[in-house]
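Hey, resending since the last one bounced:
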Amino acid sequence: MTTTEQTVDWRVGLPEDLRSDPSILKFNGVEDLARSYVHLQKTVGHPPDRVLVLPEKEEERAVFAARMLGFPEDEKNYSLPLSENVPAEARNGEGVTWFIEQAKALRIPPAAAAKLYEAYLGRAAEVEKNTIEQREKAVAEQIAQLRLEWGQGFDDKVKSANRALAAVSDLMAANGYKGEKLAEVLDKAGLANHPALVHAFSSLSRFFRQEVAATNVAAPGVGSLQVAAEDLTRRAVELASKDPLEARRLAQEAYRMRTAMTGA
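The structure tokens again:
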């Protein structure tokens, strides 16, 4: 019997659809077919009925994979299973809403997204803590630098700088500025204790005193700074209802004179 006859013989008992299938023709007998099946099992690792069949389209495969990893079929049901360690303020608001929208767009399963969000919160808190510590360290170094430079005069010069800062803020307000106080702006920027600015305002304090003193001497009949300040205050009261802006300007000038009288 020839090889061809043997090949045909082993397929005789198969149904017609299998006997004529091209994939069967390459096998010389039942033994070859059995070995091929065993090899296939070892290669795949699972029986054929347990092998996943992925969708053909790439977008469909992405959705299929996300579903297998726990992404909800209805995105309205998407939520982060956050642990108890996450504070209440971090569970609501624009920040977490934005994060959830990004996680949904990237098809990140809720469980994985929650861990990522908590890791982000932890890192953000660490960065904020380090920033505060660095700012506090910088402030301490700046104050130490000024103490070393000014010695016993440190307290008086700082008071003078603070008075000048207040006077500048008052002048800004008198000229119509309605924003944050200058001291608050400098503090937020971490510059409130910067040596250069403390020096600048301390120098301005002396300038204010000299300017007011010169104005007082040059104005005949005005008298002392106290008298001038009282006169400005009186005029400010008189103009309060007629010209509020001018009244405010006069009141600020009176305040500046009183500051100059008590300045170091």
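The chain is about 70% helix and 0% strand.

Sorry for the duplicate.
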